[in-house]
Amino acid sequence: MPRTRAPSAQTVSVLRALAADPSRWRYGYELGAEVDLRSGSLYPILMRLSDRGLLESAWRETERGRPPRHVYRLTAAGVAEVAGLEPAPAVRRRSPAPRRQLGGAQ
Amino acid sequence: MTTDLSAQVLAAAVRLLPAHQAEWGRAMVAELSHLHGRGRRRRFVAGCLRAILLAPQAQDGPGRSVVGVVAAATLGCVGLVAYGLVHYPGVRTGAGVWVAVAGCLAALATYLVTAVVVVGRLTESRRALLPIALLGGSAVAVLWWLVGVAATSSWVPGVLPVVLIPLGALALGAAAAWRGRSALAGRQVVLLAALLAGLLLFLGWVGAAVLTGGQPYDPGLVRDFHASGAADLATYAVDDDLGTGMMLLLLVPLLTWALGSVGASVTTGRRGR
């Protein structure tokens, strides 16, 4: 029986970032910067999503003299996966820190 | 296209990926070619190296094993240096200690990058020689360790390791060149073995020192300690062993590689006749 493990928080953040505009192809570095993940975390996630059929990739021509760049977007299964995720937690507003009074420490 | 050190390291490292993930390696290389700024490129490559070495792979090979061992040994060496500096604070007050630590860390980083580049550039057939690097590097480290043992105990004749070290390095280069049918293959394997030997010896030498407080103390060390004015014997001994370990970290790979390369060249020269 295949294991159904809950995706990590980092994987979820990548999925959500891709799902924000599912039709748009994304560059790896740009995606990593958006979800605050370095290449060491991002690429294993992209590889796993691709292996699971949730991510499709393509090569996109760029300016002359540079190699084509790998781009990514969710597949239909990937979009469905994101739809099945729990809703993103609402951003909790922090109560403002007490104002420090200059010269207050007597 | 920029072909700086970052690009060269990544180009070599992605060759460690199995065939079914080769496209991801090309993706990393392509992405790097669009990044500017040395720091940003280095951080990107460091992350990719982590992804390549640590990502679970369906296929594993000797290349990843060797790089994995070198990476683990490098991290272990860094950890030991940090532990020594924290656990024996008196070491930190020594003259030039931070310069020595910086040099040591630079050497360790260079060894790791060199191992990644060398393994990445090996052809598939030459990767079959990598077990020779693992075994040879371990054997050379043991021989050097015996030099230290011979200096403090009588059960190892002092002359034995001194004779065996150069012979072992020569034999290692010869064996690798013979199996790989080229001097270049021999030199590549010897280089990896040499790096590994230096790292393993450092791990053993410095590890034993920081865990035992530099014991056993030989009479010469005790005499030098009294003349040094150092605070305590353990700190003095660890400081001494740390310095020796750092020196060996440079000396052992250099000597092993030089002698092993001679062995590789001589073997292929004789074979070609």
What's this, in brief?
The complex is a heterodimer of chains A (106) and B (273). Chain A is α+β, with helices and mostly antiparallel strands. Helices cover 37% and strands 13% of the residues of chain A.
Question: Which characteristics define this entry?
Answer:
heterodimer, A: 106 residues, alpha+beta, Arc Repressor Mutant, subunit A, 3-stranded antiparallel sheet, 4 helices, 3 strands, 37% helix, disordered C terminus, B: 273 residues, mainly alpha, 2 domains, flat
SSE layout and pairings?
The complex is a heterodimer of chains A (106) and B (273).
Chain A (H helix, E strand, L loop, with lengths): L8 H11 L6 E2 H7 L4 H13 L3 E6 L8 E6 L1 H8 L23
Antiparallel strand pairs in A: 1-3, 2-3
Chain B lengths: L4 H9 L8 H11 L5 H17 L7 H26 L1 H4 L4 H25 L2 H4 L2 H23 L6 H22 L2 H30 L6 H10 L4 H40 L1
Helix pairs in contact in B: 1-2, 1-3, 1-6, 4-6, 4-10, 6-10, 6-12, 8-9, 8-10, 9-10, 9-12, 10-12
How far is it from the N-terminal to the C-terminal residue of chain A, by CA? 67 Å
Decide which structural class fits the backbone of chain B: mainly alpha
Radius of gyration of chain A: 19 Å
Number of domains of chain A: 1
Q: How large a portion of the residues of chain B is in β-strands, by DSSP E?
A: under 5%
Can you say what the CATH homologous superfamily of chain A is?
Answer: Winged helix-like DNA-binding domain superfamily/Winged helix DNA-binding domain
Q: Give the total of domains of chain B.
A: 2
Strand order of the largest sheet of chain A: 1-3-2
SSE pattern of chain A, N- to C-terminal: HEHHEEH
Mean pLDDT of chain A: 81
Q: What summary fits the major beta sheet of chain B?
A: none
Q: Find the structural class of chain A using helix and strand composition.
A: alpha+beta
Low-confidence stretches of chain B: none
CATH architecture heading of chain A:
Orthogonal Bundle
C-alpha-based Rg of chain B, rounded: 21 Å
Q: How would you name the oligomeric state of the polypeptide chains in this document?
A: heterodimer
